[in-house]
Amino acid sequence: MRAVSLLLVLSSFAEAVSVGQRRKVVQSCNVHRDKSSDTTPLQVGNGNFAFGADVTGLQTFKPYAIMSTWGWHNFSLPTTPGQTSVDDFTGVQLWTHGRLVTYEIPNPAQNDISNWLRENPHRLNLARVGFDFGCDNVTEDQLQHRFQELDIWTGKLSSYFAYNGHPVRVETWADPDSDTVAVSINSNLLRKGLGLFFDFPYPDNEKFNAPFVGHFNLTSRHSTVLERLSRRSARIRHTLQNTTYYTHVSWSGHGTVTGPAEGSHRYLFTSPQTNIQLTITFAPSATNPHPTSYRRVTSASRSWCGTFWTTGAFIDLTSVRDDPRARALQQRIFLSQYLTAVNSASAYPPQESGLVNNGWYGKFHLEMTLWHALPFARWNRFPLLWRSIPDTYTRLLPSVRARARMQGYAGARWGKMMAPLSAAPGGPSAPGDINALLIWQQPHPLYFAETEWRAFPNRTTLERWDEVITATADFMASYAWWNATTGVYDLGPPMYPVSENTDANGTRNPTFELAYWRFGLDVAARWKERQGKPAPREWVRVRDGLAPLPMVDGTYAVYEGIEGMWTSNATTNDHPAMAGIYGLLPPPASGEPLDMDALKKTAGKIKELWALDYSYGWDFSMLAMNSLRLGDPDQAVEYLLHPIFQFDDAGYPVGGSRVPTPYFPNSASLLIATAMMAGGWDGSEGITGHWPKSWENHVRVEGFTPAL
Ligand SMILES: *[C@@H]1O[C@H](CO)[C@@H](O)[C@H](O)[C@H]1NC(C)=O
Ligand SMILES: *[C@@H]1O[C@H](CO)[C@@H](O)[C@H](O)[C@H]1NC(C)=O
Ligand SMILES: *[C@@H]1O[C@H](CO)[C@@H](O)[C@H](O)[C@H]1NC(C)=O
Ligand SMILES: *[C@@H]1O[C@H](CO)[C@@H](O)[C@H](O)[C@H]1NC(C)=O
Ligand SMILES: *[C@@H]1O[C@H](CO)[C@@H](O)[C@H](O)[C@H]1NC(C)=O
Ligand SMILES: *[C@@H]1O[C@H](CO)[C@@H](O)[C@H](O)[C@H]1NC(C)=O
Ligand SMILES: *[C@@H]1O[C@H](CO)[C@@H](O)[C@H](O)[C@H]1NC(C)=O
Ligand SMILES: *[C@@H]1O[C@H](CO)[C@@H](O)[C@H](O)[C@H]1NC(C)=O
User: Fold this and answer.
1) Cα 433-644-707 angle, rounded to 5 deg
2) GO molecular-function annotation terms (predicted)?
3) Which fold has domain 50-73+124-309?
């Protein structure tokens, strides 16, 4: 039995998927639309820059965003006495194991500066570019024969429509190497008054800006200036308080930019030709940092996308013919790969909504970083991982060390919600109750490092991560608190576990965090041993003395002493993180082994009692991974296709009742779970197949390594 299943696994690994077959599979997931969506654009982009288009290939009817990793803005600081500078923020002190510790929680006496710090800086929507139909007030319904294809194999968005019987053909591309969108327009309407407009919004201070970002009617709060540079180029300077950036426009042949129209920041490009090609580059500098041409952008995009799809891991489910779930999963897998490359492969961790719109002011969350970035490693696309990891951690070290020091701990305490250092140098993480008391982001660097080590077990890897690992583990060891009564190390209180819905003052020893602390300290100790150094005694002592994983009625509980586990609906909602100890995390390398019966019983109770209709994000992928390790791939597929775990026609992860759309941790987690199905995990050889039984002989995969 064992030999047979091994052979099956080996044969599916051995057969290479040809470039032609890869192309066929990828393009079978291309997106087609004949009208604009009310909630999501079609995007071209490169991870650090993206352009969201409506059905016209531009932003004619729907002002979807153009966003970047560098475009940020601050509103003016408050003028309230005593709250006029970020240094005035004091935070709040909470009793923590017999001493007062300062947390970055808003002090009720300092609402103005606390709110300012949460809302600033916020990410900018750089502009809107759309068709101008001259004096006609045209609506989308008046366009005929609308048709659009996003070719994810090349990064080309082709759009077609007709107006008054005249066809208009548009191609939209993004440059992989700069913040440039390249557009080609072919239509004799260009000679009859069809033009392109450029408009510039002003941000608002809402936590969520979805589906659209910014306002186009607050024109007096910001300014724009047009400069015509040559017969074929112009630039528009946009100034919003301390933020200034430039839109560099170049075109082929004849054309001219005029404006702004009275009382607006709207400029118009017109051309007497029937065929025009433009490049539009956004940059913080007045000199275009990357002058390029339409032709160069198209060939760079083909080449970047081509490399993306022909290297890295691959899953081909097209031969699974008797189960429609395979087709649905295939579509999700490929569109998720495209969308995470466009939105999440950035120079620092992406926000939950990527470059589509703003969630949490455009800031990122360090506890979500593992989901966002791990797929690039698991799908063997390390260069995309390395854009942000480990640099994000290395660069933040001074400020997170300072936080730990201020709180009386050793090492570095990773924060939660923040803007990149380039937009808020040295700034604290956004103030908040949950932000300050969440801890499961802490071991993430250790997960990344261990994953990277498997692919690159060399000295460079060891050295690159060593400082971050040491500071991370030092904090973990000093944060755990020796409880003399029980004779174990406790985590919390006060703290929030993964499910942010508990009483922070009463939350002690959550299951997932305990398991993750052990995992992290194990990795950290091994890291030292690999360098021929002893693991610090403190790490080992804390690891070996951690409180046991709390149990209720033979199941793993959310946290120790939780009341009403499985009998109250207050405890069976939000993230079922207990499933993560045998889903996201491998079984422990030290201490007591996991109780397999308890794991199975916990998974069963979650399926039966959890408020899955209110679950969101990566819950379903984590439950799927738990099902995989428990030997139930059918249940894993059920979770990955759960009706609440939705993706729209273009592959965007639907936010659902809790968060706006898109919510990219869903896409990323789906890729992590499917990488596990395809590549297995340590010790998984003994389990027969990681796919539903009827798929096994038809699935083709390559390029995966086993998960931790
Ligand atoms: C804008 O810049 C000035 C001068 O550098 C600085 O004093 C001020 O704090 C900045 N304002 C904001 C809101 O960033
Ligand atoms: C254009 O048409 C839309 C939709 O019919 C309408 O709401 C809008 O007021 C019109 N604008 C002008 C300037 O006529
Ligand atoms: C300005 O635009 C926003 C949408 O961005 C709209 O909600 C608001 O009503 C507009 N305000 C005015 C005064 O037109
Ligand atoms: C926003 O304000 C913070 C704090 O004053 C400052 O460090 C940062 O550079 C500002 N960012 C922008 C984009 O103006
Ligand atoms: C060592 O690992 C790094 C990644 O940490 C990788 O870039 C490099 O190519 C590896 N070197 C060798 C000699 O394998
Ligand atoms: C020690 O642990 C027990 C059991 O979790 C808990 O009830 C008690 O409050 C802890 N002691 C202190 C001083 O926190
Ligand atoms: C925890 O208790 C402190 C008082 O010690 C209180 O100020 C704080 O609001 C409580 N926090 C939560 C989340 O209940
Ligand atoms: C729990 O059940 C009560 C009573 O049925 C209901 O009012 C409440 O909304 C439920 N809470 C959750 C979180 O589902």
Assistant:
1) 75
2) catalytic activity
3) Beta-galactosidase; Chain A, domain 5 (2.70.98)
